[in-house]
Structure formats: structure tokens, C-alpha cells
Fold:
Amino acid sequence: MESSIFSFALSTLFLSSFTLSFNSVITDKHALISFKNSITSDPYAILSTNWSQNTSVCNWVGVSCGLKHGRVTALNLSGYDLAGTVDPHLGNLTFLRYLDISSNSFTGILSFELSKLRRSKVMNAGVNSFTGEIPTWLSNLPQLEELYLYNNTFFGTIPASLFNISMLQVLDLSNNQLSGFMPHAIFNVSSLREIKIINDSLSGQLPNDMCNNMPNIKRLSIYRNRLEGQIPPNIWKCTHLEVLSLSFNNFNGNIRVKSGD
Structure:
């Protein structure tokens, strides 16, 4: 009798686990179908031809799945000239780690629903026509390592909360319509390796101790803005710095040459 009860319980547990996994995969499929339905132009017929409801999403162009659960872990649709808006249901891809929708013609805002992509490591929405302010919900993505929002029409200030992402390594906000003061919090993210904020309208000064808090910085490009004051004299203490681009700002004073040069 006890053996029968144990077998029944084990079967129930297995069935429940299978049902949950199956429903999750269905959720991923519905999210991608909703995204497909929000596309208004697909000139190369990438989605209309390849995203068939009769096949597994893991076989769709641009979609990658994990081996363990069969959940969608990556979506790469870069350079397909897709137009439309990004459907909020995309936020239901809760296992997504890599999202690249760059070099398309997406418009509108980045929906708050995308804040549910808490496993995201890379998010690339560059070279589109997204607008609005840079979303504060990005700070809800604790594993985010690379963020690319370049070549859009984002406006307003850079939210300081963005730099609560302790794992952030690459940030590119170039060629938008950003204004206001450069938040000093950006220079307190020790994990940052690359910062590109080019051709915006940011003002303010660079903090003198910036290199003390960014030991890993390799590329710092903040040219064509409205920064002023002096370039920090100890900028050469950024020992891993390979690229420094600060031209076309309003800096004044002398640039101290690196000791020994």
C-alpha cells in the first residue's frame, strides 16, 4: 500500500513538473507570436516565413533555447529592417539572457514589461527610433552586463539608478538627445570596462577621483557633449585605459602628461 502511495505521489510530482515546463514553453511561444504580430514591416520575410506556429520556437530564425528546459534564452534579430513596436509580451521570456534587436526601425518606447527579463546579460536596442526617457526599470535587471541604446531618440537625463547595476560592463548611449548633468554615479561602477556617450548634450564635470572607482575601465568616449572644467589630472591612474576620447567639449586648463612620458 505504501509503495502504491509513493508511486502515485512520484507520478503526480513528475506530471506537475512536466505540466509547468510545458506551460512555460507555451508562454514563450505566445510571447514571440505577440511580438511577431506587432511587426508592421518585414521586408526580408524573416518572421513571416520562418516563424511558423507548427514548429518549435527553438527552430525559429534568431531564437535560441536552453537545453535543460527548452526555454528561450536568446533573441537575435539584428539588421533585418523590421519595423513596428516592441510588444510588451516580450517581457514574458523570463529565461532570456541575450536580446539584440539593433539595426531595425522599431519605434515607441521600451515597455516597462521588459523589466521582467531579470536574467538578461546583454540588451542591444541600438540603431532604431526608440524615444522617451531612458527607462528607470533597467535598474531592475541585476545581471545586466552590456547595454546598448545608441542611435535612437532618447531624451532627458541619464537616470542615476542605472548605475545600481553592479555587474554592468559596457554602456553605450551615443547619438541620442540626452541632456542635463553627467551623473557622477556612472564613475562609481567598478565593473565598467567601456563607456560611450557620444554626440549628446551632457554637461557638468568629470570627478577627480573617477579612476579610483573604475579600476577596469578600458574605453572612455564622451566626446561631442558640453562637459566643462578640467580633465582630471590623475586620469592616467586608470591603468587599463586603452581609448580616451574627450574632444569637442568645453574643457579648460592644461592636460597633465603621464609621468615618465
Remarks:
- The chain is about 15% helix and 25% strand.
- Residues 82 and 227 are 36 Å apart (CA to CA).
